[in-house]
Amino acid sequence: MILAHLTQLVAHPASLAFFQDQATPGFSPMDLWHNMGNLARGVVIVLFIMSIWSLAVMIDRYLYFAAARKQSREFAPRVAGALKESKLDEAIKVADRNKKSHLAEVVTAGLQEFRNYGSGGAITEEQIEASKRALERSEAIVHAKLKRGLGGLATIGSTAPFIGLFGTVVGILNAFQQIATQKTSGIGAVAGGISEALVTTAFGLIVAIPAVMTFNYFTNKVEAFDVEMDNSSSELIDYFIKQGHRR
C-alpha cells in the first residue's frame, strides 16, 4: 500500500512538489534571517543596535562605579587624617590623587572654595556659605556624571519589547499573506511568518530584560553615592564651623 503511494508520487511530480511546498523551513539563525521580510530585518537590526548600546553602557557604568568606590575607600581615611591635623593643602593633594572618586571631587570643590575665599584670618559666615554652595554645585555635577547613560538604558528597557511586538505583528501579517498567496493553510505556508514573529518577540525581551535589571541596579548605586556625598558635604561644613569657633 505504502509502496503504491510512493509510486504515484514519483509518477506525478506535481503532487510531490505540493508536499515539498508544505515542508517547514529551517530554524537556524541564518535560515530565519533569510526567511524574514525587509521590515522584520529592520526590526532585528534596530534591536541589535540597542543591545550593543545597552551593553556598552553597562560595561562603562560598572567600571566607573567600581573605580569610584575603590578610590573613595582610599580617599576618605586619608583626607580625614589631613583635616584632623588642619593640613588643608595636604587634604586637597589627597583629593587630586583620587580624581575618579565621587567623594574626592565633591570635597575638593569645598576645600578649594574655602581656601580661596578666606584671607588667612578668622573664618567668616560668608566663607562657610561660599564653601557650602561650592559643595552643592559639585554634588549636582557628580550626580549628572554618575547617571550618564542610564537614561538611554531606561529607554531601551521600556521600548525594546514594543519594537519586538511590532516585529510580531509584521510576522503575523506575512503569515496571512502567505496563506492568501499559496491558497493553502498548511503549516508550511505560515511557518515562516510565525517564526519571524516569535524571533522578533524573543529578541525584544532579550534586549529589554537585562537593560531594566541593570538600570535598577545602577540607579540604586547612584542613590547610595548621593547619600555618601551628602554626608561628606555635611561633615566638611561641620569641620569649617568648628574651625571658625576655634579661631
From TrEMBL:
<dbReference type="InterPro" id="IPR050790">
    <property type="entry name" value="ExbB/TolQ_transport"/>
</dbReference>
<keyword id="KW-0813">Transport</keyword>
<keyword id="KW-1133">Transmembrane helix</keyword>
<keyword id="KW-1003">Cell membrane</keyword>
<keyword id="KW-0812">Transmembrane</keyword>
<dbReference type="GO" id="GO:0017038">
    <property type="term" value="P:protein import"/>
</dbReference>
<protein>
    <submittedName>
        <fullName>Outer membrane transport energization protein ExbB</fullName>
    </submittedName>
</protein>
<dbReference type="GO" id="GO:0005886">
    <property type="term" value="C:plasma membrane"/>
</dbReference>
<feature type="transmembrane region" description="Helical">
    <location>
        <begin position="197"/>
        <end position="219"/>
    </location>
</feature>
<comment type="similarity">
    <text>Belongs to the exbB/tolQ family.</text>
</comment>
<dbReference type="InterPro" id="IPR002898">
    <property type="entry name" value="MotA_ExbB_proton_chnl"/>
</dbReference>
<feature type="transmembrane region" description="Helical">
    <location>
        <begin position="43"/>
        <end position="64"/>
    </location>
</feature>
<feature type="transmembrane region" description="Helical">
    <location>
        <begin position="153"/>
        <end position="177"/>
    </location>
</feature>
<keyword id="KW-0472">Membrane</keyword>
<keyword id="KW-0653">Protein transport</keyword>
<feature type="domain" description="MotA/TolQ/ExbB proton channel">
    <location>
        <begin position="100"/>
        <end position="230"/>
    </location>
</feature>
<dbReference type="Pfam" id="PF01618">
    <property type="entry name" value="MotA_ExbB"/>
</dbReference>
